[in-house]
Structure formats: structure tokens, C-alpha cells
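hey so u asked for the seq, here:
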Amino acid sequence: MHDQNNDHSGILANREKEQLRHGSRLQDGAAHTRDHQMWSRRDFLTQTGLGLAGAAVMMNGSPVTAFGHAPLLKALGRDNIDRVLVLVQLNGGNDALNMVVPFENDEYYRVRPTIAIPKAQAINLERDHGLHPAMTSLTNVWNDGKLAAMLNTGYDNSTRSHFAGTVNWATGSGNVLGQNASTNFNSGIWGRYSEQIINGLGGVLTHPMAVRIGGPVSLFQGASGNHGVSLGDSEFINQIAERGLFDAQDSRLDAFEYGVPTKYVRSVANAALSYVNSIQEAATVGTNLAGTYPNGLGNNMAAAARLIRGGLKSRIISVSIGGFDTHSNQGAGEGRHANLMRSIADSVSAFLEDLAEDGLDEKVLIMTFSEFGRTLGENGSNGTDHGKGGSLMVFGKGIKRGVYGEQSDLVNEIDGGGDPLAKMDHRSVSATILRDWFGLPQDEVNSLMGADFFDPNLDFIDAKVRVSNETFDTPKTFELKQNYPNPFNPSTTISFSLSHPGHVSLQVYDLSGRLIDTLVDGQQAAGPQAVTFDAGHLPSGTYVYRLTTPTGTQTKKMVLVK
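ran it, C-alpha cells below
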């Protein structure tokens, strides 16, 4: 603990003298307003190279956007790593010191007389840190070993600009902590990863590598440029398809001045339509089996769970929650920031509970991030201004519980403005996930990230679930085959096989998601199985059948023609 009688006059003087970036504080008036306009305006994406239109549908009241570009129009089927990363973006600059609370540090309480979280209220984790008291629903997540907190993450010379801060976090740009080096990219970390893992594969990608559910920023732009297209909602897509506007092979286009560009646009639209089909299919057959999701972020997390359970093969799912620019009336145990913390905790815990129902929590990792933290001291409006580094959290059955990294002492380890110096480069978290969760070889991760960001102390992926590139050809534990005949009238045979005995369900749905029939629901022996589906009582149309096993789910479509 620090002596509260310690003389901080020099630190305070430096803080008052330093010219913080104009626009980072509420009292900067019009400059602060312009900062927000730049952060949120449409051309943010194109200015930073992050712009990427996609094929959008609606789920749970939020837009679901598929991201893809030319190198992604490759086969994903040869790559059998069955892992998902869910990115939870905290838009506005989260006050990380009140999320992961240093409750034994006197300086924290001295400079935050009204908004500090009392030690008695913090949810104790370890190493003198605790969670915000509004995050009580994460208590069981911690006790079950599914929560890791990363302290004081960031990069050297970080910015207090929403705009630049978001770009640097998304792309992995910025000065490297502790080194005389920097990395600069105009593409997203996860977009570069997408390009990396599919290099050399052939065929056509029918599932998007990454999807965004709501949120203003794409993290998935790769080096190849923008090759997605926004198609609005599913009804609009159906109308376009019915009018034949996706015929990219129409030779008559060559007679027109803009024939080649038009053919290109149509070919892109065809690819986007295939993404929409895969999203719609997953949304149709996917369900939420458990968990009480709150509104807002919870709706987006529920949609993500549906897509995962429905069999969407996307590696990255991005969701977001706004409201973290708490310049005034931030609150402590209750108030604006507390409500945001509660939303995160309740949404994540419901999501994990939902996926645990059929073992899908074993294949999903969740990571929070925000463009920057807040100032160490509270301002005159009982809030905090734009700061620098901040903590993030990782959740999942595949992590090793713990508090990682080192917090600033909040007295000596601070910058010229009096804010904590980042001590963990945030890119080391991404590098660890790329190598130990997704199985990318370390030299390829270093190339993708622009430097070696591996921290030997940042060992948070459970050794029992780590993958390497040698495990890509893991044998399948089950297989669902295409029904035969297809199209059919009035009956067809659905076959599947199991490598091990287990409880299996085989269900049929219509395209609105309504359950039509349960063909199998019980213990099944290992080996091939076959079931007859009689659709004599049903109208013509397309139906979806889903096989659920202890190790995963798979869906396929079949067509009834009378």
C-alpha cells in the first residue's frame, strides 16, 4: 500500500502543465464534438483502410454483416481447426481501473474520491485486484476457471483520440512497448489472419471468415482491399435474386461501356449472397438453449450463440457495446459505468451458459477490448477523461484462470499527464491467441503482427486445448450426409455416422425456424445410421435438417418437390 501522506505536488503540477490532446476532454467543447464526429462518421472506415461493406441480414434487431475479400473466396473446408474468437468491443474508452480494481492501492482512492470502487464491494480475484461489483454474474465464471484479466495493456505513445485509438487497436499499429520500433498497418489484425490461414487453398468459400453483429468498426480488412457489398436485409436480397441480378456470366454485358465493372460487381454480389445464405441457414437452425440474455449487448451475444450452434464456420465474431465515454457522472458501484459493467457480465455469463449446454463453450474464446482507458484521476464532473492503456478480459473454457501482467503503481509508473504507463503490449494477447488458440506457427504470427510480441509470462491458453498447425487433419467424430434422393417426393433417407456412441438428435426445420419433426433423440451406437423422413403431409419447399452430437452440430438443406 502507498503512503497517503506522500507528496504528489510535482506529479500534479506536471499533469496540469501537460498539453493533453485537444478534444480529449469534455471541457474542450467543439473540439471534443468534432473528435466524436470523426470517430463515428462514415468515412472513418475508408480513411483508415478498415472500410469493408458486407452482406447484411437482421438478427435479434441488429445487423449481421459478413466480411470477405478476394483471397477469402477460397475453400475453408481443408482447415479443420474448429475454434471461434468473439471480440467484444467497448466503444468510447472503458475505465479499466474501475473494471479490474486495484483495491490495495491508496493512490487509486486518493485521486478518485467519488468514483473509486470501495475495496469491500469489489469482487475479489487475486493479486490485490477485483471486479466491479456490478459484475456479480461473473463470479461463477471466475470460480469455474473461465476468466483471465490482462492488466494495463496498451502501446507506447498511445493516443487519446477515439479515431486513432480504435485504428491502432484494430490494426495492431503503434510503438512497441519497451522497444525502439513501431508497427504500422492499414489492415486489421484479424483480416490479415484470415488471409494467412487460407493461403493456397482452392475452391469457393461459402461461409464468411468473420462476421460483425452491430457495431461501427470492421476489424477484418485484409491487404487485398474491399471486396464485400452491402445488400441490406434478407427480403431485399431475395428480391434481387428473383430479378436475376446476380447473373455474373451474362455475355450481353460486354456490349456496354461499363460491362466489365458491372460483371465484377455482380460476381462480388454472388459471393456475398452465398455468405448471406450461410448466415441465414445458421440463424434458422441455431437456437439459444440456456442463459438469460439482457437487452442490448445480450441480444448480439445471443445472436452469436445462435450462429455458432447453427453451424456457421466463421472464425471471428465481433459484437460491440457503446457508452463508455464517461466524462461526467460516471458513478462508482452504481451509475452509468456500473450499468455497462453489468451488461458485459450478464451477457458473457449467459453466452457461456448457453454454449455449455451442448459443449460448444469448449470451442469459443471471448475477448473484450476498448480503444483506450480513462484518466487516473476523476475530473470536476465526477467522471474521467480520455486516457491511455487499460485492462481487458478473456473468457472461455480453454483459458487458464488468473490475473496476468503488472499494474502501474499509479505514483511513479505514470506518464507526463499523470496517467498509468501501459506495461503489457496489447498485441501480445492477440499473438498468443493466434498461436495457442488458432494454431498459427509462431514465425507466421510474427510476420502477421510485424514483430515478435510473445510474452513468456502471458501463458493464458490451457495447454490441454492448445493447437498447432500439425493438428489440422484431426479425424471427424461425426458426419452428416446429404439426404437421398434430393429433391424428393414424398420421402427421403438421411444418413449419418458416429465415431463413438453418444446421445444424438436429428431434427427437421422449415426456413422460418419452426421445428417440423424430431427423427432421432436418444443414445446411438457408433457407426453408420440411416433414418427415413416422410414429408407427405408437408408443402413443397426447402427444409433444413440438423444433427446434434456431444461433439458438435451439422446442418444440411433438402428440397421437397410435389
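Residues 9-465 form one domain. The radius of gyration is 25 Å.
lmk if thats what u needed
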